[in-house]
């Protein structure tokens, strides 16, 4: 495993720490403070377990069966049974990065000392992360209330040496075998521990953090795409002036407009039509209103970041162990705060992609492109140019609109009406992941198309920043010419969008973009 060690304690994790563990395989270590807090809360749980009075999650059943008092001799079996029975997911495997994020976030909640688990149980979870052992978690199974029960149960199942995992090499293996090879003793669950391992919103929160990380980059890439399209379509940059943007003081709008001004600076193409003969005083909305749409997306993202940061400071479990030793039931496991922002983000993702597709279409339409050849084809009629690349964009945008329908407005009661209102936050997170991937492809196609259009404006040269983006793209994608296989070029452009290479190329000229 690579990267610096991420220390896990009661303090909130940072976004980059979650990403480092989830994507980059960084190791984790529990802090001394976490071990001390877990020791103290575990002592409270053991004391309560010895009492004859029932305590939910310690000496009772769960959910609709919480009224049954469980005798001491059955409590260990109770904790194992809840993990086995709740590991009821189905469908495709969830991505490794999502499972690792979920494991880390559950570990951090355990490290707060508010769940009452034994320190050795948390240490076993950390050991799985450090060994690169990833439990197999399935797509379907969480309602996003009482936490991500089924997904977290598959993680907990691996912790006790049962179920299926993937090892550090990605091979599917029985958990008992993989743990033994890694020298990890399976956890032996005591009172309350099974419930503590599965009762959190860690899956949906992990996916939110990863989506936020990706969207920060994609919205900057969308600004680059818009700047290239404005330039290629002989649009005006006067509408991006700071004094015009200040008339509507949304912070995201100001940032996007500043990016566009920086990207279009010193462009020969822009200068070529600034004279008194230019009649292009107003561009189409997809060009002129880019800062307003991209900026609103940025402001929505900022709100999601705020919610995620609060969640990263939370201890989600039911019941919780309070510092004075009380074990109290609560509703903090409800996923609504996370579910709402996951749904919110899907809306601007669809809209930013929709605007990107409209700009692309303008570059391909001979009647609206300002003199560019039809479909940017080498020999229109013989060649189709980027005609079908726009079809691909349109298909993705249509899908993104469907993915923007909120999941969190749907609630299906469960557990014999004990859990009669649920968040569907896991579903919101799953569809947002698909939407983010779609946005990357749509923006990549716009950049690919705009780069071709800018090349066709020769001998006029684009600005230094957009020219640097074209040059970086040309390292992977050849310049305009007769028709060729487009799918690999789209894939290459999408990879450059996702990994930030095109942003880095622009920033080498402009300095940091917002």
Automatic annotation (TrEMBL):
The keyword Disulfide bond does not apply. It comes from the Bacteria. The modification 2,3-didehydroalanine (Ser) is found at residue 146. Keywords: Cytoplasm, Histidine metabolism, Lyase. The keyword Lipid biosynthesis does not apply. Its main location: cytoplasm. Contains an active site 4-methylidene-imidazol-5-one (MIO), which is formed autocatalytically by cyclization and dehydration of residues Cys-Ser-Gly. InterPro entries: Aromatic_Lyase, Fumarase/histidase_N, HutH, L-Aspartase-like, Phe/His_NH3-lyase_AS. GO terms for molecular function: histidine ammonia-lyase activity. PROSITE patterns: PAL_HISTIDASE. Pathway: Amino-acid degradation; L-histidine degradation into L-glutamate; N-formimidoyl-L-glutamate from L-histidine: step 1/3. It holds the Pfam family Lyase_aromatic. One of its GO terms (biological process) is L-histidine catabolic process. HAMAP family: His_ammonia_lyase. Belongs to the PAL/histidase family. PANTHER family: HISTIDINE AMMONIA-LYASE. This is Histidine ammonia-lyase. It comes from Actinomadura rubrobrunea. The lineage of its organism: Bacteria, Bacillati, Actinomycetota, Actinomycetes, Streptosporangiales.
